[in-house]
Amino acid sequence: MIHRGLSSCPQSGRWRSTRNIKSMTTRIAHFRAQAYVAQRELCYYCRCKMCISDPAKFARSHGISVPQVRQVQCTAEHLTSRRDGGTDTRSNIAAACWHCNKLRHARKTPLAADRYRDYVQRRISRGAWHDRFLLKSLRQSAHSSQ
Questions:
Q1: For labelling alongside 140, which of 1, 51, 65, 115 has CA 20 to 30 A away?
Q2: C-alpha 22: how far from chain center
Q3: Residue 86: what are its φ and ψ, rounded to 5°?
């Protein structure tokens, strides 16, 4: 429960400030936006065009459905995960589509970011990653914008 900038700790039941939580998520969102621009709006792993705002407009401009946009929604990806000692710093945050980010961390033992990018690229070359129509639409628009 959050009340006036405080949240209840589930273990102790004590109240603690949410200021650090808010500043952390704001900082990560800022790093995600910087990475999105630096990566030319392309996913770090699959190199598809990503959506960072207005899914309906993105869907119309790329000829895909709004539900398909969910797969390419821009997320902040920790290149070295926090559980492996990664930090919430600009150098450790990349922009990745929701699909790639979700599947990387769904693995029993997630691959390192560079190995996972190679894995994704191999899957794409075999036509076995995003939905084929979605992949074709978003990779064509990514190539035409470069």
A1: 115
A2: 19
A3: -70, 155
**What's the chain's Rg over C-alpha atoms?**
17
**One digit per residue, pLDDT tens: the chain, 146 residues?**
444 444 444 444 444 444 544 565 788 999 999 999 999 999 999 999 999 999 999 999 998 999 999 999 999 999 998 888 999 999 999 999 999 999 999 988 889 999 999 999 999 988 888 776 676 777 655 555 55
Tokens of 120: 């994704």
How big is the chain, counted in residues? 146
Q: How far apart are CA 105 and CA 113, in angstroms?
A: 11
Dmax of the chain from CA atoms? 54
CB atoms under 10 Å from CB of 22, counted, come to 11
- The answer for residues whose C-beta is within 8 angstroms of residue 99's C-beta and 6 or more apart is 46, 71, 72, 129, 130
